[in-house]
């Protein structure tokens, strides 16, 4: 269902999505009240929900829609502004499944926007119809590294913010190394993502600053449109922000972050790859593993899109591939000093 007060936007989105395999637009409504009536009337998997609407806006409608159908997956359509980003991220913490920065009417036909929105809709519908069961065990693909990591490096994209909320809460406050994160996001969103992660009360989180010394137990988010790079050595790492060209069509990109981490830390890097479209992070993870580091990936069943984590899993680069709720404990285990048995 598409919920937007603009008939032009509703029509443009519907025409775009109707051509996507596996997607059918079953309703178009102008406000949250009409959306609530449709959810009570028919079976809907995913709602694309505008924020600013008359009668009942997106934030007012969100809890009512989830109350009417707790399994409903809601994608918030926000503006690219700082205010729009803040509202979208607050919506994620209140139960929305994801967000999409909404372009103008002329840009809706843009291929990158179409691919992103369609991937989110298909992935969220799959999660609704086939809820993931958390497995008790997972097969190890590679042996654990010989030494504990000096850095935890996280990559995420499509579906990432919601996954990050779960992961960061699971990590808690006692992470013995600095944590760096590249999430594919526009500039207005990344400082607010860091602020929302900080409000979880686990890792102190902030957008990374150029030249900043990285402290253990703190999370540093790559700013939108800047690559986050690591300099220094274990125990005295620094953040550097780069303006080199996008990689994998992204800036920030996971690959340059991981390459720089290998230069700074050698093999003492733990990669944690979350849900995301594409294969950003594959080349960087390969470099980490070649240097003696380790990698964990979110499994397909709990990922909105199993692109980025699937790429490193299918390349045989992972120590474990796990459901989202198990990743934090596995990461903490690999960050602890390991006892190596005498030969």
Care to give the gist of this entry?
This protein has 343 residues and is of the alpha/beta class.
Keywords for this entry:
single chain, 343 residues, alpha/beta, Rossmann fold, seven-stranded parallel sheet, five-stranded parallel sheet, 11 helices, 14 strands, 36% helix, elongated, disordered C terminus
Annotated CATH topology of the largest domain: Rossmann fold
Give the DSSP E fraction (strand runs of 2 or more residues).
15-25%
- What is the CATH-assigned architecture of the largest domain? 3-Layer(aba) Sandwich
| CATH homologous superfamily label of the largest domain | Methylesterase CheB, C-terminal domain
Percent of residues in helical segments?
25-40%
Rg computed from alpha carbons, rounded to a whole number of angstroms: 20 Å
Q: Give the CA-CA distance, first to last residue.
A: 62 Å
Question: CATH first level of the largest domain: which class?
Answer: Alpha Beta
**How many individual β-strands?**
14
User: Low-confidence segments, ≥5 residues, pLDDT <50?
Assistant: 134-139, 339-343
Main sheet: strand order: 8-9-7-6-12-13-14
Order of secondary-structure elements: EHEHEHEHEHEHEHEEEEHEHEHEH
Approximate shape: elongated
Number of domains: 2
